[in-house]
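Hi support team,

I submitted a single chain yesterday and got back a structure, but I'm not sure I'm reading the token output correctly. Could someone confirm the output below corresponds to the sequence I sent? I've pasted both exactly as they appear in my results page.

Thanks,
R.
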Amino acid sequence: MKTFKEYTRDYKAEYKKFQSSPERIKYRAELVKYNREKGTYGNGDGKDASHKDGKIVGFEKEGKNRGRAEASRLKGSKRKVEEANSKYIVSMNPNDKKWYVMGHVGNNKWMPVSNGFKNKAQAQKWAKSQDKVDIAARGEISGA
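Hi R., thanks for writing in. Yes, this is the structure output for that exact sequence:
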């Protein structure tokens, strides 16, 4: 079993994978250009070019504008509800390219509680079965 340190996020790899693609670079360049043309780039007003549905539509507060992009952060997000109901998450280890079920150990830290799975679906299925085992062990359901 791997140590927690081996499961820390690789921010460089994430940036390389998602933010350095030609499409994203072009998109960010368009937003910066729009901000500069409107005189709001770097002036500290807290406003940002608002990008909704891939189009620039004006200005709004930076936090509101940037937070909208990640739908899983919003209230009612299916992912958020599932993670709140489960004490396990599924994560891929970039070193061995296997999927692991991670158990929460406090202070936003997670440790692997399973052996590696070949794909995410297998790991999710195992995590769901563990949730059922945990519920049955607490006596919340009968006949499990």
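A quick pointer for reading it: The helical segments are 11-19, 22-38, 62-67, 78-85, 120-138. Let us know if anything else looks off.

Best,
Support desk
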